[in-house]
Design brief:
Keywords: Signal
Protein name: PhoX family phosphatase
Pfam family, one: PhoX
Helix content: under 10%
Distance between the termini: 10 Å
Shape: globular
Radius of gyration: 22 Å
InterPro entries: PhoX, TAT_signal
Bound molecules: MU-OXO-diiron, calcium ion
Length: about 550
Amino acid sequence: PNTATPDTALPGFAGVPPSSADTVVVPPGYRASVLLKWEDSLGIAGTGGAGQAVQAGMHHDGMHFFPLSADGSRGLLVLNHEYTDETLLHPDGMEPATVEKVRRSQFAMGVSVVEVALRRGEWELIRPSPYARRIHGTTPMRIAGPAAGHAWMRTAHDPSGASVLGTFQNCAMGVTPWGTYLTCEENFQGHFGAAPGSFRPDAAQRRYGLAADGSWLPWWQFDERFDLSKHPNEANRFGWVVEIDPMDPTSTPVKRTALGRKRQESATCTLTRDGRVAVYMGDDSRFESIYKFVTRDTVRPGGYAANRDLLDHGTLYAARFDGGGRGQWLALPATAEASIHARLAADAAGATPMDRPEWVAVHPTTGEVYVTLSNNTQRGDPGRPGVDAANPRARNAFGHIVRWREHGGDAGASAFEWDTYVLAGDPAVAGAGARYPSAHADAFGAPDGLHFDSGGLLWIQTDMSGSVMNKGDFTRLGNNQLLCANLATGRIRRFLTGPRGCEVTGCVLTPDRRTLFVNIQHPGETSDDGGTSRRGWPDGGIPRSATVVVRREDGGMIGT
Ligand code: FEO
Ligand code: CA
Ligand code: CA
Ligand code: CA
């Protein structure tokens, strides 16, 4: 790889300006094309390709590329489908709700596996493919780790407490050293509900956002396991990291309860000095914490077969950020209760409540860890936690990025040193308090997705909310976007701007850095038209989330 290029030349592209256009913009010399949209057939052999349960789901999010060939020209793209927009999912909207609509909404979330190949400079879907697979809201899965079989995990449908149907609200992700995919269940609480007055949440249920009137969709009226008054334990079976073997389409996904239950964001893996795995996780709600799970045992050669139970034994920690740039990993009790109620265990241990921790990325050679804190407009409000060293802005509308170095450079350490990498926002806005690592940094807001390529460039993706985008203090930041940061120089350059209303997420580069895959989520989303102006990206019809491929016209390495 391009070692002759001095660091100061990176990123080596002309940055694109902020944009409010309804299109994807990339730098001169680059080309972007749509690869996989919502409702595209995945090419699952023998299915005919029709129906949401075998098509690409909605609202693409975290994603990874698993090479299938030594030269990386064939591989699997594995991607999350976070949530549903029911006004687009059903031609007549969710009302009136029916059992068929509830099923379709369950089928539209989860994970897609597709086979892709690079042919004559273009990535194509291989359809049919023996690897192609949909995992969705009713796919059978196993529950493993300390909470498996516990009384709180048992339901009328599953007296064993060790098997469950489905995964949904799949947001960020991770990849294990043995080549499996970790999908993270984020806002699961919004799918549970009950008739008014029939369910009163206890303190733990409240902490996880469960309430009789908490459901976004009336699943509970048509699929009884989501009725909190009848099956309250079903909600304990969501909010986990789920391990999927993309190489075996017949494999059963496994919910790994040792990693703790939260509104799961990221399950970013790295190795400890002695060869165990450390998994870094965010919990994306205001004033929730950052976690690390360290396995008891070391990784063994031999792929998933040799490491099937590795994530079931270990220690779960929550982070406390102290002043002076010091931090501590606080070990949580190794019990089923502490795993199911990880938030309560983190409180009891004294973890720091953060400004919505989202993605975590680990530098490929230094092991330095970066985390996005997307925003927290309630920081410092009456009755809410005030500012602290690691969350230094009250009513933090723009978000920030914090980084840490594990003590002794060992991901297994129980202490770390940290600092703030970026305080995001428009530096021209008085009082915004924006701070970038150099004068050569393009401004952005609401950092969310985060990815290190194999050369150590950091790719930052944004998720400014539609209620603030292109307005007020956010006017000059434009649509959501993807930026590229050179840690050595402090340069941050805007690489891609998304269409109107979208979030940019799921960025992953191939190991040779010659292809960048990225997801455009919820294009056309607006907060102020009631969902009526529903035409647009990518093809002028109803807007569709999609995976976009970016290549250089000269076939060179992206970002250099
Ligand atoms: Fe689904 Fe926290 O973003
Ligand atoms: Ca996110
Ligand atoms: Ca989002
Ligand atoms: Ca977000």
